[in-house]
Amino acid sequence: MARLWPFFCLWLSLWSESVLGSILAIDYGADFIKASLMKPGQPFDVLLNRDSKRKIQATVGWKNKDRLFGQDAANIAGRFPLDSFSFLKVLQGAPYDSDAVFSFGAISTADTVKTERGTVALRRSDGTEWSVEELVAMQLSYIRDLAESTAGEKVYDVIVTVPPYYTQFERDAVVDAIEMSGLRTLSLINDGTAIAVNYAMTRLFPAPEFHIIYDAGASSIRATVVEFAPVPAEGKSKAGKDATQITVRAVGFDRYNGGTELDARLRNMMVADFEKRHKRSISQDKKAMAKLWKEAGRVKAILSANTEAQATIESLAYDIDYKAKFTRAQFETEARDLKHNFALPIQEALARSGLKLDDITSVIMTGGASRTPMIQEAVKAAVGAGKLAFNVNADEAAVLGAALHGAALSRQFKTKDIRITDIGPYDIQVSYQTESKAGARPRNINTVIFPANTKTGTKKTLTFKRQEDFKVKLAYKAPLLRGYPVDILEADILGVSEAVKNITEAGATEPVVKATVMLSESGFASIRDAVVTGEFKDESIAGPSSSAPEEGATADVGTAEEDTTSSSSSSSAAEASATSAAAVTKEPINLEIDVKFASIPPMSLAKKRTGRDRLKAIDAEENVKRRKEEARNTLEGYIYKLRDLLGDDSSGSPFMKCSQASERRRISEKVDEAYSWLQEHGDDAETIQYIDHRTALESLERPIVHRYKEIEEFPQALNNSQMWNWSSRMFLTEAKQNMTKELEAGTPTKYTKDELDEFEKSLKEHETWLNEWVEKQKSVKMNEDPVILSSEMRARAKVLENQLQKLYRKRPPKAPKKSSSSSSSTTSATTATTSASATGSAEETASTSGTSSKDPRHQEL
Ligand SMILES: *[C@@H]1O[C@H](CO)[C@@H](O)[C@H](O)[C@H]1NC(C)=O
Ligand SMILES: *[C@@H]1O[C@H](CO)[C@@H](O)[C@H](O)[C@H]1NC(C)=O
Ligand SMILES: *[C@@H]1O[C@H](CO)[C@@H](O)[C@H](O)[C@H]1NC(C)=O
Ligand SMILES: *[C@@H]1O[C@H](CO)[C@@H](O)[C@H](O)[C@H]1NC(C)=O
Questions:
Q1: Are 411 and 15 in contact (CB under 8 A)?
Q2: DSSP code per residue over 171-240
Q3: What's the CA angle centered on 129, arms 123 and 133, to 5 degrees?
Q4: Are 757 and 726 within one domain?
Q5: Could you tell me where the Low complexity compositional bias lies (predicted)?
Q6: pLDDT for 397-423, tens place per residue?
Q7: Sequence-distant (≥ 6) Cβ neighbours of residue 752 within 8 angstroms
Q8: Mean pLDDT over the full length of the chain
Q9: Domain of residue 335, CATH code
Q10: Is 140 a domain residue?
Q11: Exposure winner among 272, 276, 582, 599, fewest CB in 10 A?
């Protein structure tokens, strides 16, 4: 069974020495945003916001001119119901006339408007409009700022979770928001898959296991059937025995059922209760509805752990303070029609995976709403209590898994080897018309190219026998949601006739157009490229005769359908290699592809730039404001500080002791001046003016501060000087004694007389200087500028120190060459002596020298 992965693997270590960037992972939910930062060499964890919260309310708002995020933005909804924007996730990529916008309207007090792209924007009370992408981008920027202040460096790369059911339109909206926020999309990852990565992080799977990740979020419920298996160690693949393969088998989901729907039911109960008791309607009162929404969330959370809860809202409407008691039983009755739906995604996912409940080891419960008793009961009833597992962090597993996957993708970190195979949940088809031939009308061909459950990252090659330009369309096979389009994109393949002509002139036969279609790892379907290729007779290899059967084989491709969809890139590669013995394919000619988005286009580059600029403009404006407030606050604080210093009558304070009456008078005048300026112009001044006033005050205070700093520093600086003075003197005395001895013994002297004389001269100069200025300093009053600076004392002591160090480091003199018989032992003895002064252990060195004289190998050193 699953074994615990050693804890230290949660700590990332450097993969290489190159300069590495941090990676940000964001789990962008309808209710909360969770983020995690991966920085090389640091343990990774969930990113905290400025209030040290681990999850950040997914709300952006404005209180008049101030933009707010998170809890602050959510809290103002009751007062500014048009300026607080939550649940933006349900609006991502949504057409204006769709169920998503309708259900948003049921829970939010914000005003929605239609953009030119047919998507949704929100209108503030001042009339300004912000697209959903722009508002989400603001939140992502906010998270990026948090990450950057945590990382202490710029952060660019981000991996963001999305629900597995997100269509291409919704995925585009996420990527557009990321780009406008100034981040780079490393990848999108389906949230169930991210949770699976988190689950696999601390576990090993010696044999395959199936689990269902049940994720009950605010806006929706997802079930992901996942297989965990060891990575087969075949060939030269260097998968360690700890490597895990995660394969998503199927997903099931309910897009409109989750924690938020339960909040809505609870709010309905409150509205009905209020209207019944007070005989007045409040459902049109946006402020009241926003206040009730907040209270409903709170009461629901209490009812998850208690059987009853009290709702209390002061001055809800008509000056009425609302108070009511709700029981869990009442609440569950109100929402009983939903209960049946809670487990449906599990059944759906199981059916699509072809597995049976018996095959499933556990159902891993995650998501904020998985704490709701009613939801737990529904799942328990569907799968049996024994299968329920609460073994991942319900709130943070997705973001931590995403972070780990992001780290693996970036290849900058050494992480546990976890491989992912994910799927696209929808049938995607390619459509085109057959070539028009004389007499015959072109027919429409629709082929499902990526059936539901196709692995993401799959490429397929389409082969067309064409002479002219043509169109290829990618679309979802069936409508997915009311109001959502099915068409993903339309591509014009251009320049076909010229390319066919060129390649034919170059000697190719049977020219065909090959287009590569891809379902990316992040779940985007696209047409990657289109080329014209053909078969070339290669006389150097096969000679002209052998090409004849080859042409026949190629002709098979264009059958009655005329266009053939070859099954996959691997099979077309096999085709190519099979024919290479007889003929070679020369360089294909690239064709131009003109992609159009007929339905909901992703944002154009120009629109994204505009959005980016709007966001930057607000950021810049806020920065200017922040700097101004800072400058004002610092000036104010400084004025108060100086007043305190001036008003301190005890005259014992350093400020008083080190200042003259005239100086204090001047400061006092300037303080009064700055203060009255602040009173008169403080509210509409420029940042620079606050700074100028502060600078003027600082220049008056600076000499005083300098004095008492020097008074503090002086004893230590003097001590330091005396210390070097003293050790230099000691050294000189000893060195001179040694020299006398050495001269007497006839051994070479370590120092020359000049060296010692020169050093003595420096020392004397130092002493003279020190004595003179210390004497002078004694007569300087505390409130006068010092005549000798501690910095200068230190600098002079340093000169002495350097000279002394240099003498200490001096190598001992070489033994005279003539006494060859005992040269080796003399040398080692001298070495021992010198190093003894460094190590201070004469005995040990002596014994080393003894060894060295006996050991011939040692002597060579
Ligand atoms: C075809 O050949 C002409 C002449 O060499 C060249 O100018 C043109 O770019 C070629 N077109 C394509 C699509 O390769
Ligand atoms: C001077 O330095 C010595 C040794 O570092 C220390 O013991 C002594 O307290 C110092 N005296 C002053 C006045 O800093
Ligand atoms: C420097 O050291 C010598 C010898 O210890 C001493 O006589 C002299 O007063 C010292 N000078 C100062 C300024 O400390
Ligand atoms: C003087 O000689 C002794 C003994 O040889 C030695 O330890 C010391 O380091 C020498 N002093 C100087 C200043 O060279």
A1: yes
A2: HHHHHHHHHHTT-EEEEEEEHHHHHHHHHHHTB--SS-EEEEEEEE-SS-EEEEEEEEEEPP--TT----
A3: 105
A4: yes
A5: 565-574, 819-853
A6: 999 999 999 999 988 888 889 999 999
A7: none
A8: 86
A9: 3.90.640.10
A10: yes
A11: 276
Give distance in angstroms: CA of 808 to centre of ligand 4.
10
Q: Is residue 390 part of a domain?
A: yes
pLDDT digit string (tens) for 107-160? 999 999 999 999 999 999 999 999 999 999 999 999 999 999 999 999 999 999
Q: How far is ligand 3, taken at its centre, from the CA of residue 811, in Å?
A: 29
Q: Is 518 in the pocket of ligand 1 (CB under 6 A)?
A: no
Where does a domain end: 421, 438, 461? Answer: 421
In a domain, 833, yes or no: no
Q: Is 498 in the pocket of ligand 1 (CB under 6 A)?
A: yes
CATH number reported for the structural domain that contains residue 149 in this entry:
3.30.420.40
The number of folded domains in the chain is 4
Ligand nearest to the CA of 726: 3
- In the numeric block, which tokens belong to residue 543? 């000679």
Q: Ligand 1, atom 14: nearest CA belongs to which residue? A: 499
Domain C-terminal end among 778, 808, 838 = 808
* Span 675-692, pLDDT tens digits: 999 999 988 899 999 999
Whether the CB-CB separation of 672 and 646 falls below 8 Å is answered with: no
Residue 532 near ligand 1, beta carbon < 6 Å: no
State the pTM of this model.
Answer: 0.76
Same domain assignment for residues 635 and 783: yes
Span 77-99, pLDDT tens digits? 999 999 999 999 999 999 999 98
Counting from 1 in the atom list of ligand 2, the atom nearest the Cα of 719 is 1
| Residue-level pLDDT at 823 | 39
Q: Kindly give the distance from the C-alpha atom of residue 572 to the centroid of ligand 1, in angstroms, as a whole number.
A: 26
Q: What is the CATH number of the domain that holds 487?
A: 2.60.34.10
Q: Tell me, in angstroms, the distance from the centre of ligand 4 to residue 722's CA.
A: 22
* C-beta of 589 in contact with ligand 1 (< 6 A): yes
Domain hosting 593: range is: 426-543+553-563+579-603
Kindly report the CATH number assigned to the domain that includes residue 772: 1.20.1270.10
Q: Give residue 229's pLDDT band: very low, low, confident or very high (50, 70, 90).
A: very high
233 & 375 share domain: yes
Instruction: Check whether residue 307 and residue 345 sit in a common domain.
Output: no
